[in-house]
Amino acid sequence: MDLPVLWFAIVGLFFVGYFVLDGFDFGVGMSLPFLGKDDTDRRVLINTIGPVWDLNETWVIVAGACLFAAFPEWYATMFSGFYLALLLILAALIARGVSFEYRHQNKHAEWKRRFDLMIIVGSALPSFLWGVAFGNVVRGIPMDAGHNYTGTIFDLLNPFALLTGLTTLLVFFTHGVVFVALKTEGEIRERAKRLATRAGIVTIVVGAAFLVAMAFVRATPASLVLSVVAALALVLAVLCTAWGKEGRAFTLMAITIAAVVLAMFTAIFPNVMPASNDPANSLNVYNASSGSYTLTVMSWVALIFVPLVLAYQAWTYWVFRKRVSRAHIAQAAH
């Protein structure tokens, strides 16, 4: 495997990690109005991701940094063409992070309500917009010979991209509610199981429509196989949730997200940014990549530090593996 192809795979794996890990964070945030019947419930929900949400978000920073260093042309075209969407994602992530830190600084109900709203919007908006962005990458965007985006913001809001955004929104929501069922006890766990089952059924329907649409928009044998894997994993995840097997359901939801992301990457390969107006204007792993020296240095750095990061993250999840309950919140208040 040559270095540009290797780094295309590495970038894809970083986005897999980000969507799997921050995906359930987003889902927990979106579940606040559905599972949080009072402030204690909402604190339970927030505490399920409290120790890990900021660690999960580092994956998108690393993915963006790798994209910038390994494929500067891809980075430039994507961030200039999707500027408004990515700016909204950044603003939403900032508002969400601030809300986690400041929500408990005042006991006034209105203060908490406003920060809860920021958490909900700050979780839902990136969930939708990331799907819209990747839907456009798969579909292709109009570019000139210099690989500059020549469309408008309205061109990005096409039916396939909007369907992709709705799919990621629902998948992340279901993923997050399954995580709540996995990490909580008592009544809130039972409510989460029921909600995850109902939401999962809707997600299956919308997800099936998306996978079929992607097969017609752009597909390879590998992407079709991965799409089938994603569909089967999603159905099994919903069934496991209904049967009360939250651990298996969470694992299957992670497989669903990973398979979908990998299906998108394999569908466009060897391109990284297909041109919808003229295939000759497309960016691929070779004309978008950095030089071999840069990629070689990056490969050695990744070989050393990625295992350390994975080990640290695994250790963090192990330390905070216990379930959270209303009793834990009441004890912490005294």
Describe the structure.
There is one protein chain. By secondary structure, this protein is an all-alpha fold. The chain has one domain (3-332). The protein contains 14 helices and two strands; from the N terminus they run ααααααααααααββαα. The chain has helices at residues 3-30, 32-35, 39-49, 53-70, 72-81, 83-102, 109-139, 153-156, 159-183, 186-217, 221-242, 246-268, 292-319, 326-332; strands at residues 271-273, 283-284. It has a two-stranded antiparallel sheet with strand order 1-2. Helix 9 (159-183) runs antiparallel to helix 12. The model has no long low-confidence stretch (mean pLDDT 90).
Would you kindly provide a brief summary of this structure?
The chain is mainly alpha-helical and 334 residues long. 79% of the residues lie in helices and 1% in strands. The chain has one domain (3-332).
Class of secondary structure makeup? mainly alpha
How far apart, in Å, are the first and last alpha carbons? 58 Å
Number of strands: 2
**Overall structural domain count:** 1
Shape: globular
Average pLDDT taken over every residue: 90
Total DSSP helices? 14
- What is the chain-wise order of helices and strands? HHHHHHHHHHHHEEHH
Range of strand content: under 5%
What does the radius of gyration come to? 20 Å
Q: Looking across the biggest beta sheet, what order are the strands in?
A: 1-2
